[in-house]
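pls design
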């Protein structure tokens, strides 16, 4: 089992409605809809992960290169 870690969105969800956070995130009683923003965020995270290992960022994500460079230096 993966160790628990807070994320910014997780904390925001908890502060908005702790019961909803418990049901969706902790107990997984309901599936959260997969929004276009969530899809984009997952794509960005994956692209940055690959960039840290040497794969160039896609043209639509070059503005994140400064963070890749900061971690790699």
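designed seq:
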């Amino acid at each position: 089992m993966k160790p628990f870690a807070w994320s910014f969105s997780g904390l925001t969800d908890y502060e908005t409605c702790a019961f909803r956070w418990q049901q969706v995130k902790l107990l997984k009683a309901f599936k959260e809809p997969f929004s276009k923003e969530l899809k984009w965020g997952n794509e960005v995270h994956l692209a940055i992960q690959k960039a840290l290992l040497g794969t160039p960022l896609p043209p639509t994500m070059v503005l994140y290169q400064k963070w890749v460079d900061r971690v790699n230096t």
